[in-house]
Amino acid sequence: MSTTVGTGIALLTIGAVLGFAVRDAVPGVDLALTGYICMGAGALAIILGLTMVSQSRRGSSVHESDER
Question: Does residue 29 sit in helix, strand or coil?
Fold first, then answer.
């Protein structure tokens, strides 16, 4: 869980910096679009990580009865 959420936070941060703060130009690369894509991927990673955690906590317990 922490890896997925941590990766998502890192992608959001990197994407925000690329999308909003960097004003340099790299030939053939749109840095703002790259930042938006990173932010989208980061948001998706956080959502997936939190979903996986909620499913693992919910879990299913099996109760076996010893009826003979």
Answer: strand
